[in-house]
Hints:
mainly alpha
Amino acid sequence: MSRRQADIIKNLPDKEIVFHLYLTQAILLILSLVLGFFLFDHWSSFMELWNWKDWNILLVGSGFAVSVVIIDFLLVKWLPEAMYDDGGINERIFQTRSIPHIFILCLLISFAEEILFRGVIQTHFGLVIASMIFALLHVRYLHKWVLLTSVVLLSFLLGYIYEVYANLWITVYAHFWIDFILAVKLRKDYLRDQKEGVSS
């Protein structure tokens, strides 16, 4: 992220950053509906992508989410902080939110992104196209190769899981837990730093 973009984010009020997040996810959902209307023959075709009665939601979804979170924790521990700096946008979004609000945000993000990228785009145009567009959505990572590689790889792996199991619930579930755990950690770290700052 360029210095100018980082300065803009730094000067935005928290409420405005969260508003833009909600707006972005609403746009993704509307885009999914519009594209889905033209690309799916029937509503039933879209509903076939969802299967509640699949133990892989818990088994594969949980296993994948835990693996991604562990790898992320290790990379943050081993790599220089500058390599993981996204301009502070994730911290601004999550560090002062309540846990229920973080839950709602992560649920919205996982549904909106998985419906569009896996359910609509990947279903009709394939894994590579869906992953490339997903990476472009995270344009702020273009100058951070570790973050960009992580996002692209995560998209390909989620896409591969969807290819194998053909069930959107698995990728939504995994995506949600990855975002939720990492967001709660950002909040926990922020509260710890605030407490240490007060006590010092």
